Amino acid sequence: MNLTINLTVNGKSHSATAEPSTSLLDFLRDTLNFKGTKLCCNTGECGACTILFNGRPINSCVTLAADANGAEITTVEGLADGEKLHPVQQAFIDTGAVQCGYCTPGFIISVKALLDRSKHPTAEEIEEAVSGNICRCTGYAKIVDAIQLAADRLEGRS
Amino acid sequence: MAKAEYTVLGTSIPRQGGVERVIGAGIYGIDLALKDELHGGILRSQHAHAKIVSIDTSAAKALPGVHAIVTAADAPDVRYGRTYIDRYMLAKNRVRYMGDPVAAVAAESQAIVKQALKKIKVVYEPLPVVIDPEETMKPSAPTLHDDMPLPKNLPPDAKVKNVCSFTTVHVGDPEKAMAEADVVVDEVYETKMIHPQYLEPRIAAAQVEPDGRITVWANAQAPFSVRTDVARLLGIPLNKVRILSTELGGGFGGKASGITSGAAIEPICALLAVKAKRPVMIVLDKAEETISTTIRSGAKMYIKTGVKKDGTMVARTGKVVYDAGAYSGFGAMAGARCTNMLGGWYLMPNCHIDGYVVYTNKQVCGPVRGPGGPQAAFAVESHMDSIAAKLGMDPTEFRLKNTPKPGDKIIGVAKLRDVSLGETIKTAAEKIGWGKVKLEKNQGIGIATGSWIESAGPGGGAIVKVNEDGSVTVHIGKIDMGTAPRFGIPLIAAEELGIPVSDVTVVNVDTDASPWDAGTVGSRAIIVSGTATRLAAIDARNQLFTMAASQLEASPDDLEIKDRQIRVKGTPSKSIPLATIATAAHNVIGEVIGRGYCDNQAMMAEEKARGSSQPFTAHACIVEVDTDTGNVKILKYVAVHDIGFPIHPVAVEGQIEGATAMSIGQALCEQVVFDDNGRTMNPSFVDYLMPTINMMPRIETTLVHGYPGAGPYGAKGAGEIGCVPPMAAIANAIYNATGVRITKLPLSPENVLRALKEAGKA
Fold it and tell me: Mean pLDDT throughout A142-157?
């Protein structure tokens, strides 16, 4: 009954079995031990489980592991270059956008996807990019600061 | 900005623990995995009120992979609670809300747990359900707790039942003053229950150690309170229980009230681990959490105020009916706070308010972010605008007219020391463009103020250990959930010991090692742990100076630490590395261990003698109301706060902005909705609406200075007060835009449109 899933996570190939009903989130967290992607609502509403699926941000809690066969996945664990944090990660720390931090991996992935496609995001584009991510701690003000800072740093503007 | 005399205090050095959070390290409770662990799950009542006739677990027990099933019969006959000890960890004979824990299972997999829970047969005999607290108070209502007495301080003629706490506030002669008032405004306000909805699901994990001790991992805001009740409910001494705090993915008071918060998930998990003889971990599903754990209660508030023509308030009377839920929980404390705050934080010479905290068949009231305050402020500050309108006065002028001065008293506070209220009002008015900004059709401007208590609650300690390389390890009893413990506290230790902030580590709570503490609750982290850490660091420094004095041929009083060097003041060349003295301590006292305490009694005595320097705030906003849909859009939002000296300004702003966002959520969309049977209609995030970035304005925070508080270096707590004004600020702006006063939350499109239609404005 179990399916074999072959996929690439953060540039490395993995192969493991999953039941047909297993979510990609549970597969990543419990089978492959990528705990950085967070479990929260399990209904695709909060964005804590956001990952890049073939480069696109998706909610992994409402995606089946089976659908990830052959996919290229990026999780928050795949962003830093060794000890050096990705500019989006560093910007979240520097602006005080990390309070409890539970929503942070999902936000960082959504923002990375935004900055991969848009070098000079407008306020509207920023809002749209993270509109599926809920943060209960910050009121979003410092998160917007972080996104702007990361965009500036990536373009050498800051 | 940093005051000149400080090196790191007043700067916003990035929080400790940031890196592990942005790289996705498995630090939270939910990331925990114990060797050989079993999965645990809880069977919850499907009736809001019923007798338990029988529980048959035999079919569930027979399932392969099931290791333990527990019911009330497996636990000592001990109850828990706050005001009243009125609750079993697993319901015994009776359930009182839909979500009450009835039984629990430990099994090899989550799937087996779910199957087993379905196979437990509980026979219920339904009892009448009461949802509305005012109905529940009536003598004809069913009795929810047969063996709980009515509060002793109830008025003798009060014909009520199901009341679990009563508070009365009485000042002056309100009846006479009301009769002499020129204008009287009489209103009723109502708020709904909301869930704090921290993102990380609540967990508990437990294992029995080889020596018989029980270790419990919890993502709780108050680990020592959890330890108390785990030990009590299992009938074992405190030294046989160890609570290890995981990192918390949010709390907001929803994880603050010991085992009450999670409806006893921690002792239930421990009971399963004991019975299964294997480690057990329980993770609550978000929808399960919404229906079963503690919430911010709804309140119905009657408020009547008498004023003179010149705008001087002379009398207030009122009544609060506060929903405790099925058990007393934090209801008494939150309800009392709500009752006091309904008196307002302005000059009020005559006042009488009665507050009833009432049992209902709903989930239990917890101390959610400013317990009682946001509800009261919605009534008080909406009411202030209603009075101003009736007087034909400007809302800011009316408030300033009644603003207290230093030395004045307000309801619940005998004497104020500094009063920043007036400055926050003026600053908020200026920042929003009060009286200047041009408003388009259907746009409105609103202001509301707030306050919060200065010193309330237990003391707490800190231990500062100086390692032989000169770095320090700080133990406090408060956990980090994005609050002071890893923002402001490391700065305090670094400042006092003359070391870089990176040389300071604040460790998470382990009840075996950390000093006792009431938890990260009540805006208390900077006040309690900040004060204690400062004194502990000074104690450690004094020990270091005593040891260094002979080597530097100077008096300890003449020494200072700068850049990891102990040196003679004024003669920097006479110095010795901090690490050298810390290492030398090995041959003397072993280790330099500084101890410090926040003595709450001393702090309260000081407040009594000098007056309270409690924080004040004013928020103002501009909204646009769509009169076709009822949708309210916030166009601009300013939050002006006095929180004393900001030890870590970015952390303070973050607390204010987050608290404001939570109350904007409660203002515009959030509520837990029940049907008549007590079933929650919107348990999952699909139906429970919370603010996303789309509906949030940029909250523009301004701190006003010059009002030092009771905390270290003049700091005040900042975690809760931002929750106090937003709901009224928005309601007042809607009133300004449309001329319609909405007295019930939420100000959702549906409710706004209904109110506009009733007023003939839509």
Answer: 95
Measured CA to CA, the distance from residue B396 to residue B270 in angstroms comes to 55
Across the interface, of A94, A96, A104, the residue whose CB is closest to B651 is A96
DSSP string, B216-280: EEE--S-HHHHHHHHHHHHT--GGGEEEEEPB-S--TTTT-SHHHHTTTHHHHHHHHHHHHTS-E
Q: Do A100 and B481 touch (CB under 8 A)?
A: yes
Considering only the beta carbons, identify the residue of A41, A132, A141 that sits closest to B286: A41
Please give the average per-residue pLDDT across B664-672, as a whole number: 98
DSSP summary character for residue B329: T
pLDDT by residue (tens digit) across B419-456? Answer: 999 999 999 999 999 999 999 999 999 999 999 987 67
ipTM summary value: 0.98
Residues written for chain B: 762
Q: What is the pLDDT of residue B348?
A: 98
Query: B170-184, B384-398, B602-616 — which is least confidently predicted?
Result: B602-616
Q: Is residue B184 pLDDT above 80, yes or no? A: yes
Cα separation, B740 vs B749, whole angstroms: 14
Q: Name residue B203's beta-bridge partners.
A: B283
- Say how many Å lie between the first and final Cα of chain A, rounded: 53
Return the closest-CA partner of residue B37 out of B281, B203, B219, B285. B281
**A36·B23 Cβ contact <8 A:** yes
The band of B1, judged by pLDDT with boundaries at 50, 70 and 90, is: very low
Is pLDDT of A7 > 60?
A: yes
Q: Which residue in chain B has the smallest CA separation from A124?
A: B694
Considering the entire predicted model, what is its pTM?
Answer: 0.97
Residue among B283, B285, B693 whose CB faces A140 most closely: B693
**Is B18 in Cβ contact with A100 (below 8 Å)?**
no
Strand, coil or helix: what is B290? Answer: helix
Cis peptide before B406 (omega within 30 of 0): no
Per-residue tokens: B201: 């699901």
CB contact under 8 A, B693 and A143: yes
Q: Which of chain B's residues have a Cβ under 8 Å away from the Cβ of A39?
A: 30, 201, 283
Asked if B685 and A80 come within 8 Å (Cβ–Cβ), the reply is no
